[in-house]
Design a protein that fits this description.
It is built from 12 helices and 12 strands. It is α/β, with parallel strands linked by helices.
Length: about 290
Amino acid sequence: MQMSTAHFRTAAISCVLFPFLFLSSARAETIAPFKDELFSSQTVLETGDSGDFTRIDYDEMRDINGRDSIPERRVKDRYVSLKVRRVQENQTLQLPTGPMEVGRVGRDQGQAFTVIFIHGRGGDRRLGLNDISFGGNFNRLKNLAAENGGTYYAPSVRSFDDKGVSEIASLVAYASAQSGGKPVVLACASMGSFICSGLSRDPATVAKLSGMAILGGAPDPALPKSAAAKARLPIWFTHGSRDSVYAAEGQVSIFRKLRAAGQPVRFTLFETGSHGTPVRMSDWRALLNWLIR
């Protein structure tokens, strides 16, 4: 992959010392800090594309074994706050496309923003509500939403085809209506990226979205010509450099095409990371502060 590395040393040092310098410049931050010292102090190995591309140092011994009390099963207690469960509820929403099982964290209506997380194959709403696995990263997302007046939805996606796309479009419309038209961010992981890709072609849904995050997702060659691209919807990709399911190079290529066309896009590459690394390591506060507009 070809990267622009002009002023690399200065950029790298600045990113290590000030992790949000490049992520939140020229924009007031919407999301207040939550355990940033544990989740946001990531070392930037390389920057390119005027800071839109970052390569992050990832180390399994440090970021899994050093972070978990039981590797890949239970994070150490200091990484989580379980008080957020007081504002968590399982619901069955009656949507135009039929009933949908969701986990909801935060307000039922009048929220300042909404985040919807789409799991991959074999998952359901429990994955996005899991406090103690994935390095505590979902617990952080839940707390960031609840403490900042937002709502977090983790739906059970029954299929990743057109039917699933239609059902999530109904959820996006519902969340937008419940909030009175406030920002909605859609985050899709792994095969869940098929949902983001499908919705990127739907102008009505794109108009209700503030941005998308795609975590370890499948490259979508049609994305540069989609309704999302035409609307210049902000998209942030995160990916592991050693992803054996969806190769990083394919997603980087999509990022470059979108950026060349003037779309606001960012890409975080976790060096040596695997397919599951973005779910564990993506900095939700940085993503939300950039995607919520």
